[in-house]
């Protein structure tokens, strides 16, 4: 088919095969960009979100054309906007009801001992991190967000629509789950435990990192109190921590 251009000349439309070739190349480039963005936000060892995905960093503006929003930033914004409700007693006035949001900071107790074990070593340590992260990922809600907070064994779990009490209960449930989970590497069977710090979003948390800092402080208290436990502690009838 011939078409006239702006100068009144005739030009041929590219053959369909050429159009398809360009379309295929565009799709491949788009898929490649998505793959690279995913790699930039995923921890390669545990196959969960990395710290950049959770909290962002100086390179975040280069992701998704500058439109990337870290998970915790997004969830805090959603929690503070809350849900719109209509109250008949207030003359049909629409009000904002904030939703709760909590985070859990956890790490493996005495993880260095695994790396130093002659039967396990660093490969055994990597296997342990992969196994525990998979266990946690399969055990939390679909709406919850699990990520690796640092290069070591610290993990962060974001719990949307969860208050402090619910976060503590969830932390204790996960602690017991890990405690009972048996691992096997190079023929050696072993178990690990975790310590967990919980924190709920408050008005005093001006930045996402403020919420994380509070959870991290509570994690330190859990470890200082003997490890293999949650801080703030759950009700006595729910907790059955043992020192390791």
From TrEMBL:
SUPFAM superfamilies the UniProt entry points to: Nucleotide cyclase
InterPro entries given in the database record: Diguanylate_Cyclase, GGDEF_dom, Nucleotide_cyclase, Rev_trsase/Diguanyl_cyclase
One GO molecular-function entry: diguanylate cyclase activity
Cross-referenced Gene3D superfamilies: 3.30.70.270
CDD domains in the cross-refs: GGDEF
Region called Disordered, residue ranges: 223-244
Pfam families: GGDEF
The GGDEF domain, residue ranges: 99-235
Protein name, UniProt field: GGDEF domain-containing protein
Annotated organism of origin: Candidatus Roizmanbacteria bacterium CG_4_9_14_0_2_um_filter_35_15
Lineage: Bacteria, Candidatus Roizmaniibacteriota
């Amino acid at each position: 088919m011939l078409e006239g251009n702006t100068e009144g000349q005739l030009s041929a439309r590219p053959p369909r095969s050429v159009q398809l070739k360009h379309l295929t190349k565009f799709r491949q480039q788009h898929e490649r960009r998505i793959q690279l963005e995913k790699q930039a936000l995923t921890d390669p060892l545990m196959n969960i979100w990395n710290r950049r995905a959770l909290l962002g960093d100086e390179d975040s503006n280069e992701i998704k054309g500058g439109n990337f929003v870290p998970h915790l930033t997004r969830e805090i914004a959603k929690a503070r906007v809350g849900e719109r409700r209509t109250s008949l007693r207030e003359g049909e006035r629409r009000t904002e009801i904030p939703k709760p949001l909590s985070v859990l900071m956890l790490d493996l107790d005495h993880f260095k001992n695994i790396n130093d074990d002659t039967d396990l070593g660093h490969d055994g340590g990597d296997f342990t991190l992969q196994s525990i992260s998979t266990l946690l990922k399969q055990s939390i809600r679909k709406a919850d967000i699990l990520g690796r907070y640092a290069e070591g064994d610290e993990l962060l779990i974001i719990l949307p629509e969860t208050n402090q009490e619910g976060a503590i209960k969830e932390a204790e449930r996960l602690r017991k789950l890990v405690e009972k989970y048996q691992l096997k590497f190079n023929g050696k069977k072993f178990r690990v435990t975790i310590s967990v710090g919980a924190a709920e979003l408050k008005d005093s948390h001006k930045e996402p990192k403020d919420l994380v800092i509070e959870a991290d402080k509570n994690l330190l208290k859990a470890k200082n109190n003997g490890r293999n436990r949650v801080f703030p502690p759950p009700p006595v009838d729910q907790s059955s921590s043992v020192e390791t």
